[in-house]
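Lab channel / #folding
Pinned by the channel admin:
"Please post every new chain as: sequence first, then the structure tokens as a reply. Keep commentary short and put observations after the output so the thread stays searchable."

First post following the new format, from NK:
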Amino acid sequence: MLFLRRCLPVLLLCLLPAALARPGDDALPGGDGLSARDIYQRVLDNKLDTSYMEHRMVSTDPGGSEQTLAFWSRFKDLRAPGSAPQGAVISKTVLKFTMPFDKRDTAYLFIEKKGGEDEGFHYSRARVRVSRISPAKESIFGSDFSLDDLAVVRHIDDATYARLPDEEVQDKSVWVIDVFHKPESKPAYAKSRLYVDKQRNVPLKTRHWDEAGVEVKELDIPSEKIRQIAGVWIPMESTMHDLSEKTQSVLYLDRVIPNPQIADSVFAPMLLPRLDQEAAPHDGG
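Reply from TO:
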């Protein structure tokens, strides 16, 4: 308090709101000695190196009408050990839709970069050609998931962190951390609050705020729907709530093949129209 009393009034007014909005990473270390950054790194590291997955998404509007989508994805984690240079590619994800019929052959490509704007590409039979999109804002066929929600990995340096008191979610002890996404990384959200299962490093709940400080979305993962595959804990079901539209989308993961070999050509934007809906790769192959 002595320091604050000695500060000039103008300096106090300028600095105090920022200090309250963004507490330091070690503001609440906790008895386990983990900082918020340490916890978030555990969440980031709970990922397969590569994967093939088959998904279903069921979206419900306020009137109860449902839309069901099916698609497969291929993912490759490209985070380099140590400090990756600015603009380095972190991950690549391609999605291709298989149903309903009018959305078949639609494809998305997401290329995530450290400390810069990610790249997104879209192809559909209606558009005929591949076009660039903004991944953070691209809603998947009007669902509550954006391309950023489905494909993002994140680099630890693309945000700052603050730890909050531990809580219980679904009868599980969870770490609670705030993640302040840096504007230069062009994030989908300004701030996210994660409630991370201490045993499995999976957020059982994630709340998102926009730049105006309005809470816009919440992602819930049922604890009993988390499975361990190839040493990684993976949610087989997750529900995204749009708090303003009062809609929700449930993402089901029907099949996972961990760590298959994936050719780099799969992630070429100009090949999106010719991505065949080939059979899934062999398990582990």
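NK: Residues 26-274 form a domain with the outer membrane lipoprotein receptor (LolB), chain A fold (CATH 2.50.20.10).
TO: also worth noting, The chain has one domain: 26-274.
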